[in-house]
Amino acid sequence: MTDCIFCKIISGDIPSYKVYEDEEVLAFLDLSQVTKGHTLVIPKKHVTDIFEYDEDLAATLFARVPKIARALEQAFPDMQGLNIVNNNKALAYQSVFHSHVHLIPRYSKQDGFSLSFANNQADYTPEAMEQIAHAIKKEVN
């Protein structure tokens, strides 16, 4: 894809700070550096988001994540945790439409990154939960 910034990084048209590369996957530092070592892991094949992955591409990309995560842990002994984030579509905060996984090292609760999840458990009866589970289950191929 000619106008994709990540495709341009893959082709070498735009420089990056590479931390890992093989024939199918590239990992490089996110320029925003939410925390020190914030890394993006991308497939070299252009896919917009997780909905375009086939099983082989998913296995290939996600098999590299633990390897790169361990490298971050070794490189930064003060790292206390790691968030793995994958945003899909604009509503879910995807801003570059070439699929990518963020590896965000965590050093403290004040390191500039946070996630919070609402607890809506009281809004769902056991029957509603069964209906939701059934709707998903019947679509899994």
Automatic annotation (TrEMBL):
The active site is at H100 (tele-amp-histidine intermediate). PROSITE patterns: HIT_1, HIT_2. GO terms for biological process: nucleotide metabolic process. Pfam families: HIT. Transmembrane segments: none annotated. This is HIT family protein. A motif (Histidine triad motif) lies at residues 98-102. Residues 5-113 form the HIT domain. GO terms for molecular function: catalytic activity. InterPro entries: HINT, Histidine_triad_CS, Histidine_triad_HIT, HIT-like, HIT-like_sf.
